[in-house]
Amino acid sequence: MRNYKQEYSNYHSRLKEKKRRAGRNKARRLMTKKVGKKNLIGKDIDHKDRNPNNNNKNNLRVIKKSLNRSRNG
Length: 73
What we know:
Shape: globular
Mean pLDDT: 94
Radius of gyration: 14 Å
Number of helices: 3
Helix content: 40-55%
Strand content: 5-15%
Largest sheet: 2 strands, antiparallel
Strand order of the largest sheet: 1-2
Structural class: alpha+beta
Low-confidence stretches: none
């Protein structure tokens, strides 16, 4: 069984990871303004260069969750 508290304290609470998460959240907010909330249901915002801190409009696109989450990292 996963220990979520331990995962957070060991990984998700790191400053670098907080900034990456904030970048992903900001990208979603930007795309919500651009295409509307209804058009993002069931979709993910993809960073083409795989950098969550690069929220340039040319670097963001809306794709299916299945495509975005199945990519090899």
